[in-house]
């Protein structure tokens, strides 16, 4: 049976409130898609995982490359899922659809994610340096590490929250760029 596309891939652009059980329905519908073409999905996700791990293992540029190209590959995954929801068969080549369609915008998602992460890391370094300057954090081996962490844990929670905001902005952005044709910045705002 043909699956209703909205049950599998929510392509609405505007954020909306939905019942909590809708999340479970999406998982069930996605598993139904998988059951229709398990070999294709195992191949697509296997190549995706191997590509991401392979890029990450490259010396010097690996992390940069996987961060920048991750959204491009995710766009391909979403393309394959949408294709199957329309009744077509997903193919391994669909994983690379982001390189042919919307490449620049998907790459921009990676760039924005990278800069957002770098900004949080810089803020974290500044906070830790400030804490060390104020004496809240020391390199002295005689001071208990857990006591030091107790003094800066509120700052660490703020840093975790900042990383959560950056990741949340990234989470749905490749899908919105690939399937809705949004610009990278707009997709990250809506994500």
Describe the model.
The protein is an all-alpha fold. Helices cover 74% and strands 0% of the residues. Helix 4 (62-85) packs across helix 6 and helix 7 packs across helix 9 (184-190).
User: What is the count of β-strands?
Assistant: 0
Rough outline = elongated
Helix proportion of residues, in percent? over 70%
Return the string of H and E elements: HHHHHHHHH
Q: Percent of residues in beta strands?
A: under 5%
**Broad structural category:** mainly alpha
Number of helices: 9
Terminus-to-terminus distance: 31 Å
Average pLDDT for all residues: 86
Largest sheet, described in full?
none
What are the low-pLDDT stretches, counting only 5+ consecutive residues below 50? Answer: 1-8
Rg calculated over all Cα atoms: 21 Å
Question: What's the helix and strand layout?
Answer:
Layout: H1 5-8, H2 21-36, H3 38-57, H4 62-85, H5 97-100, H6 103-133, H7 145-171, H8 173-180, H9 184-190
Helix pairs in contact: 3-4, 4-6, 4-8, 6-7, 6-9, 7-9, 8-9
Summarize the structure.
The chain is built from 9 helices and no strands. It is an all-alpha fold and 191 residues long. Helix 4 packs across helix 8, helix 6 runs antiparallel to helix 7 and helix 8 crosses helix 9.
């Amino acid at each position: 049976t043909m699956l209703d596309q909205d049950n599998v891939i929510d392509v609405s652009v505007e954020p909306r409130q939905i019942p909590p059980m809708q999340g479970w329905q999406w998982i069930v519908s996605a598993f139904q898609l998988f059951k229709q073409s398990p070999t294709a999905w195992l191949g697509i996700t296997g190549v995706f995982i191997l590509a991401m791990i392979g890029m990450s293992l490259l010396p010097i540029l690996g992390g940069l490359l996987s961060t920048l190209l991750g959204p491009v590959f995710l766009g391909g995954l979403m393309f394959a899922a949408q294709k199957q929801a329309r009744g077509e068969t997903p193919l391994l080549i669909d994983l690379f659809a982001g390189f042919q369609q919307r490449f620049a915008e998907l790459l921009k998602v990676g760039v924005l994610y990278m800069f957002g992460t770098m900004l949080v890391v810089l803020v974290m370094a500044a906070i830790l340096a400030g804490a060390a300057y104020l004496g809240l954090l020391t390199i002295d081996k005689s001071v208990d590490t857990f006591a030091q962490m107790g003094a800066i844990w509120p700052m660490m929670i703020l840093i975790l929250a900042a990383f959560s905001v950056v990741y949340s902005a990234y989470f749905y952005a490749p899908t919105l760029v690939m399937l809705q044709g949004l610009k990278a910045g707009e997709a990250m705002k809506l994500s």
